[in-house]
Specification:
71% helix, mainly alpha
Length: 111
């Protein structure tokens, strides 16, 4: 009797969230992110529900692609939370990125 392959395994969401939390805690311990960020980050708890829904809806996708999508969502949350908490390094980085993006857009329009 042939074994059936598991149909549409989703991404290892629990593992991704644990690794993400570990990286955030490491960044906070080393001083790259402030500990006060947790107050702002706590407002993003519904993202966990969104991630669970993405895992269910997109389980037929490649687990690597789904994992990348989940990491992008989590990274976006941490960047937005750091920006909202007024952390200067994040604000400066976003400002530089915005200026670089605007310069590249304007230079492509001018040519």
């Amino acid at each position: 009797m042939a074994e059936e392959e598991p149909s549409g395994r989703g991404a290892p969401v629990a593992g991704i969230i644990l690794v993400f939390l570990g990286v955030v805690l490491l960044l906070m311990t080393t001083g790259y992110l402030p500990w006060e960020l947790w107050r702002t980050l706590w407002r993003f708890w519904p993202v966990l529900i969104i991630i669970a829904g993405l895992n269910i809806l997109l389980r037929n996708l490649s687990p690597w692609l789904l994992s990348l999508l989940i990491l992008l969502v989590l990274t976006g949350c941490i960047v937005i939370a750091a920006y909202q908490s007024g952390y200067p390094v994040i604000r400066e980085t976003i400002s530089v990125f915005h200026r670089t993006l605007m310069i590249s857009i304007l230079s492509s329009v001018a040519t």
